[in-house]
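Sequence, please.
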């Protein structure tokens, strides 16, 4: 008998991953099944209370930092607005800590919101700097970093089988972004070309080495 701490269910299966959420299953001893089940629930309540306190503490610190920076900026150099940069950075940290580190959301949601939050932050910084550098250098660097991180996770994670379909979708989306920039815009395209080739190879490798997993996930989600 095995146990999924994320779904709070017992699974009688020889597989190592939960059929509901694809998280790693824990082995349960027959005589301690009930004890470990309720112990897991109590531990979940303690973690929830701890996370709630950390979120309130971070909210208080965020408000203090924003107010102090705005006050200092207003009374020292009102013609040079740097406090909005701090405020937007704090908002991004909220996404990083509250939505990514402390939450139990799916990897798909975490990566998506991290990507969007970082892009919005950097676009804002570009507008303040009055220079065009985001599309030429920063965005392709983010795309390369995102593809590399997912490839690394796919190699070393114990849950890599459960992440195959999610990462495949992200590879496709990142490839589309690079191709759109290459075909539609006139920005500096070498980095986008490098990413398009690199990400395309990751897509090909995923199809070749994880075809059965992708096929099974598609059949399950499409009810085939």
């Amino acid at each position: 008998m095995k146990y999924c701490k994320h779904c709070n269910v017992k699974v009688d299966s020889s597989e190592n991953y939960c059929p509901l959420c694809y998280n790693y299953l824990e082995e349960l001893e027959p005589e301690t099944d009930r004890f470990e089940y309720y112990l897991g629930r109590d531990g979940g309540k303690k973690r929830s209370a701890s996370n709630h306190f950390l979120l309130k503490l971070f909210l208080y610190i965020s408000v203090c930092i924003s107010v102090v920076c705005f006050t200092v900026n207003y009374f020292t150099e009102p013609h040079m607005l740097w406090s909005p940069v701090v405020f937007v950075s704090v908002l991004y940290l909220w996404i990083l800590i509250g939505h990514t580190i402390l939450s139990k959301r799916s990897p798909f949601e975490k990566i998506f919101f991290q990507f969007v939050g970082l892009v919005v932050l950097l676009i804002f910084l570009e507008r303040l700097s009055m220079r065009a550098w985001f599309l030429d250098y920063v965005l392709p660097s983010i795309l390369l970093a995102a593809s590399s991180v997912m490839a690394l996770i796919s190699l070393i994670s114990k849950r890599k089988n459960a992440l195959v379909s999610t990462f495949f979708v992200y590879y496709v989306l990142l490839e589309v972004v690079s191709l759109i920039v290459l075909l539609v815009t006139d920005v500096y395209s070498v980095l986008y070309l490098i990413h398009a080739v690199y990400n395309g190879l990751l897509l090909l490798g995923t199809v070749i080495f994880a075809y059965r997993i992708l096929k099974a996930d598609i059949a399950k989600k499409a009810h085939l």
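Residues 132-224 form one domain.
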